[in-house]
Structures are given as structure tokens and as C-alpha cells.
Specification:
The complex is a heterodimer of chains A (256) and B (264). Chain A is an all-alpha fold. Chain A has 9 helices and no strands. The chains are: A mainly alpha (256), B alpha/beta (264).
Chain lengths: 256, 264
């Protein structure tokens, strides 16, 4: 019994993981019916996606510009500045695009999802739906989950494209790398597989972040403090899970 | 008999909420369920709307034991029931019109003009046809409750459940809600179940009353019968006396001893 504390933490962790998995199953079962409600779904893609555009585009631009600066400094040492386009494209598409977008998504859209659903729970809106014989999983949770999953790869794509222009702005306009070389090297070195890797990553992150946000909100304690706590947990859990999954996926892609 | 709870037991952790509860709501009547705060009135509503199931005993609605029903059957049953929540529980991202239209859109394929007519009729019944375009955040507490009432009756339920319909209302809104409950019951012959601790307001409209105390029914009958009860507990509740079987003070150590101890 000496390590009873440790056991109960493990037990609690496994229990939570199980609960989230069951919730994911219930969500997925409701996703198909909610596809038949395009209006709800489009609204949620707008909420999670379009409303995150400004922060994603701004961040993408600056991340790309930093990449241009740092990349140029580093490549200059080896006399291979013309590889800047390739370095920036691979870095953005495979790594920075999906990861930074997911972290920003967790902070911007994830918290909004959690607090919105949590407040709906706290003000009896979800119970009211139950009593009206409308499944809140179908009406509230599934469209929001699906909206997040669809929005994430789109946002990551936009992030990467804007980031590339940021890198080009620094590399070509400021540091005088040849424009033709910048783009043609990139074109030659970046394959469809690299794009697919980024796409798979951002899809997986989209599922993870949306699931965490919707789950935390749906199961938040129905009080002001409970909703606040759930919102914080969404950001913390999403960030850690995204970075962890990023390692796992990167390792898996290198193996394959 | 629309609602029939028989010898129900329910507890959360170690705390017993119901211990042998019996309660009936008859068709076409207004049944009042009264009791001090924390006696499980809201839990009782959860029981008869199948949000929880009794540990022991039965909760029957429309003659069917809720505990034996599948999720689909519970949903089918709920479509015959309307419920008014204490704070209205309006969907905050829809305007008043869409809130009332919500159950219709979810459960029927009625054409838009018909939905429009249906919703406007119900809003007219609660006097808020002019507020159709407002968002829930723009409504006062009394208005929100009336919109919620319109939503609760839009599917023409056979039973209407009110959770604390009078709490926190000004005298005018309170009178309006009171008249609406009476009117819905008489005009639409809806069976009404009203949970509240506002004794005077309930007494004016209820046909049958139950007084809930310590997990069971302490008294039942017409409001007048309850007021004339010999039980000290019933009289205390009906007259609102501070002292009686329900003590004003929460159990605490001896007053003087505790004050003196604080000096040390």
C-alpha cells in the first residue's frame, strides 16, 4: 500500500483516457447525422476557422520572417543561401505550420469552444435540449468537433503559405537571395509527401484539439469556477498533447 | 394518472435525497410540489424527466416505468412533456423566434410558413410576439421565462413542468406567469406540475399540493387542507415562521463557548 498514491494517479489517468475515448466514440457516431445539417456545420467552421484567420495569418507572417532571418544567417555560414526557400518550405509545411497553428487554435478556438459549451451546461441549455428530446451531442458537440477538425488543416495550410511569403520577404527582398533560385530550389526539393506529412499532422492535431476542447466544455462543472478551470485545462492539455503527438508522428514518418 | 412515483429511494453518496417518496399528478390538474430549499424538489423533476433513475421504487410517466425504457423510448416520451426551467435555459445563440421554433425544426418537417404561424401564435399567447427578433441576452428575467414557456408549449405537450416559475420575479411578472400557468392548464387542458417554495402564489392556482420534507411527502391535499394541518412542520412552512421543527440555526457548537475561545 506504500505506493497507493502513485497507483491512484495512474488509475485516474487511465480512467480519464477511457472516458475521453468513449466520448470520442459517441461524437463520431453523431458526426454523420450532423453532416446532414450543413448550416450548423458551416457556422462552426466559420467560428473555429474564419475567426482564427487574423491571428493565424499574423503569426504565420512573423514565424516565416524569423525563419528567413535565422535560416539565412545559418545557411550563409555554409555558403548555401540559395537553399533558403527549401529550408523554409520544409520547416513550415512539416513542422511549424501544423504545430504552431494547433497551439494557436487551442488558445483561440479551443478556449472559445470549451467556455461556450461549459456555459451552455451551466445555464441548463444542454439539459433543456435533453428534455426537448434533442441530443446535445448531436446538436452542440458534434458540429463543433467536426468544425474544428475541418478548420485545422485549412488554417495550417494558410499559415504555411503566409509563412513562405514572410521568409521570401526577408530572404529575397532584404537579404538579396535570388528570387528565381529561392522558388525553384523549393519547387525541386519539396515533394507531395512533405505536404501530406503536414496535412496528416494537422488533421491529427485538429481531432486532438477539438476533442479536448469539446470534452472539457461538455463535462465542465456547471459553475463559473468550473468553466474557468475547464478552459485552462483545454489550453494546457491541448498544448502538451500536440507537442507529444508531433514527436510521435515525426518519428513515425521518418521510419516509414 | 400522468405521473406516479411509488416508494422511491435515491441518494447521492451517503446523502439520502428521497427515502420512500410517493407522489401522483392527475390528468388535467395543477399539482404543486412545495418544500424548503434543499429538500430535493429539483431532483424530483430530474426523476420524472428520466434524467436520473431511482435506486429503489418506481417512477411512472404515462403509465410507463422510466427505469425500464431505452434512450429512444425516453426521448419519445419527452416529446409529450414540456418543461420550463428556472432561468429559462434559452439557447443563447438563437433569437427569441428561433428559440421557440427550435423543437419544431428538430422534430418536424413543417414548411416555413407553418412554423412561422405556429411560433407567432405561441409568442402571442405569452404576450411577446413583438419581441420575436430579440436575442435572449436582451430579455428581462420575466420575459425570458415567458419565451421559455412559449418554447415549452410549442409542441403541444400533454404535461408541462415548471421549475421554480416564480423565483426572482417582480410582482407584475409574477402575476403574469401565475395567470399563464392557470390559463395553459385551463385552455389547453395540460397537466401541470409546479415546483416552488412560493406558498402563496402556488396556493392561488394549485388543485393538489404536496409538501416535500426530508426525502418524503410530509403532507398532501388542497392548499387549504395543508394550511389547516396539525403538523408543526407543515404549519411552519405554510406560514413562514423562523422557528419550528426546521431550526433557524445550522447545527453549531455552543455560541458562548465559541466566542470565548476566539479570544484566546
Amino acid at each position: 500500500m506504500s505506493n497507493g498514491g502513485g497507483n491512484s494517479i495512474v488509475f485516474e489517468g487511465v480512467r480519464r483516457l477511457g472516458a475521453v475515448t468513449i466520448f470520442l466514440g459517441q461524437l463520431l457516431a453523431q458526426c454523420l447525422p450532423s453532416l446532414g445539417r450543413p448550416r450548423l456545420l458551416v457556422h462552426q467552421i466559420y467560428n473555429a476557422g474564419a475567426r482564427s484567420l487574423i491571428i493565424i495569418m499574423l503569426s504565420g507572417l512573423f514565424v516565416g520572417m524569423v525563419l528567413g532571418l535565422q535560416g539565412f544567417q545559418l545557411l550563409q555560414r555554409f555558403g548555401s543561401e540559395e537553399a533558403l526557400g527549401t529550408a523554409a518550405a520544409l520547416g513550415l509545411l512539416k513542422e511549424l505550420g501544423p504545430v504552431v497553428t494547433a497551439l494557436l487554435f487551442a488558445g483561440r478556438a479551443g478556449t472559445a469552444l470549451t467556455s461556450e459549451i461549459g456555459l451552455m451546461r451551466a445555464t441548463d441549455q444542454l439539459t433543456a435540449m435533453e428534455i426537448m428530446a434533442v441530443d446535445p451531442l448531436r446538436y452542440v458537440a458534434a458540429p463543433r468537433f467536426l468544425g474544428g477538425v475541418i478548420a485545422m488543416p485549412l488554417l495550417a495550410g494558410i499559415f504555411s503559405v503566409i509563412g513562405l511569403y514572410g521568409a521570401q520577404l526577408i530572404g529575397v527582398v532584404l537579404m538579396r537571395v535570388d528570387r528565381g533560385v529561392f522558388w525553384s530550389q523549393m519547387q525541386g526539393a519539396v515533394g507531395l509527401r512533405d505536404v501530406m506529412e503536414g496535412l496528416v499532422k494537422s488533421l491529427v492535431f485538429g481531432v486532438a484539439c477539438s476533442l479536448i476542447a469539446v470534452n472539457e466544455g461538455y463535462h465542465a462543472e456547471p459553475t463559473a469556477a468550473g468553466v474557468g478551470l475547464a478552459t485552462t485545462r483545454t489550453v494546457v492539455a491541448s498544448s502538451v498533447v500536440v507537442l507529444l503527438l508531433d514527436y510521435v508522428l515525426t518519428a513515425a514518418f521518418l521510419q516509414g | 394518472m400522468v405521473v406516479d412515483v411509488r416508494d422511491a429511494y435515491y441518494s447521492v453518496g451517503d446523502r439520502a435525497i428521497f427515502s420512500g417518496l410517493d407522489l401522483k399528478a392527475r390528468r388535467g390538474r395543477i399539482t404543486a410540489i412545495m418544500g424548503p430549499s434543499g429538500t430535493g424538489k429539483t431532483t424530483l423533476l430530474k426523476l420524472i424527466t428520466a434524467q436520473i433513475t431511482a435506486d429503489r421504487g418506481q417512477a411512472m410517466v404515462f403509465g410507463r416505468d422510466l427505469a425500464t425504457l431505452s434512450r429512444g423510448e425516453v426521448y419519445a416520451l419527452r416529446r409529450r412533456v414540456g418543461m420550463l426551467f428556472q432561468n429559462g435555459a434559452l439557447l443563447t445563440d438563437l433569437d427569441v423566434f428561433e428559440n421557440v421554433a427550435f423543437p419544431v425544426r428538430e422534430h418536424t418537417d413543417l414548411p416555413e410558413p407553418l412554423i412561422r404561424r405556429l411560433v407567432l401564435t405561441k409568442l402571442q399567447a405569452v404576450g411577446l410576439r413583438g419581441a420575436a427578433d430579440l436575442m435572449p441576452g436582451e430579455l428581462s428575467g420575466g420575459m425570458a421565462r415567458r419565451v421559455a414557456l412559449a418554447r415549452a408549449i410549442v409542441m403541444d405537450p400533454e404535461v408541462l413542468i415548471y421549475d421554480e416559475p416564480f423565483a426572482g420575479l417582480d410582482p407584475i411578472s409574477l402575476g403574469v406567469i401565475q395567470r399563464l400557468i392557470k390559463h395553459m392548464n385551463a385552455a389547453l387542458s395540460i397537466t401541470s406540475i409546479v415546483v416552488s417554495h412560493d406558498v402563496q402564489e402556488l396556493a392561488a392556482i394549485a388543485d393538489d399540493s404536496y409538501l416535500l420534507s426530508a426525502g418524503r411527502i410530509a403532507a398532501s391535499g388542497t392548499p387549504a387542507e395543508l394550511r389547516a394541518s396539525d403538523s408543526a412542520a407543515v404549519r411552519q412552512f405554510m406560514t413562514g415562521a423562523a422557528e419550528g421543527p426546521v431550526a433557524f440555526h445550522y447545527p453549531a457548537p455552543d455560541y458562548a463557548t465559541q466566542l470565548l475561545a476566539a479570544d484566546e
